[in-house]
Amino acid sequence: MTTVHAYAAPDATSPLQPHTIERRELRSTDVMIEILYSGVCHSDLHQARSEWGPSLYPLVPGHEIVGRVTAVGEQVTRLRVGDLAGVGCMVDSCQHCESCAEGLEQYCENGATWTYNSRERDTQAPTHGGYSTAIVVTEGFVVRVPESLDLRGVAPLLCAGITMFSPLNHWKIGRGHRVAIVGLGGLGHMGIKLAVAMGADVTLFTTSQGKADDALRLGAHHVILSGDRAAMKAARSSFDFIISTVPSGHDLNPYLATLKRDGQLVIVGALEPVGLSGVPLVVQRRSVAGSNIGGIAETQQMLDFCAEHGITADVEMIRMQDINSAYERMLKNDVKYRFVIDMAAFRAEQEQAAD
Question: How far is 218 from 240, CA to CA, in rounded Å?
Answer without folding.
Answer: 21
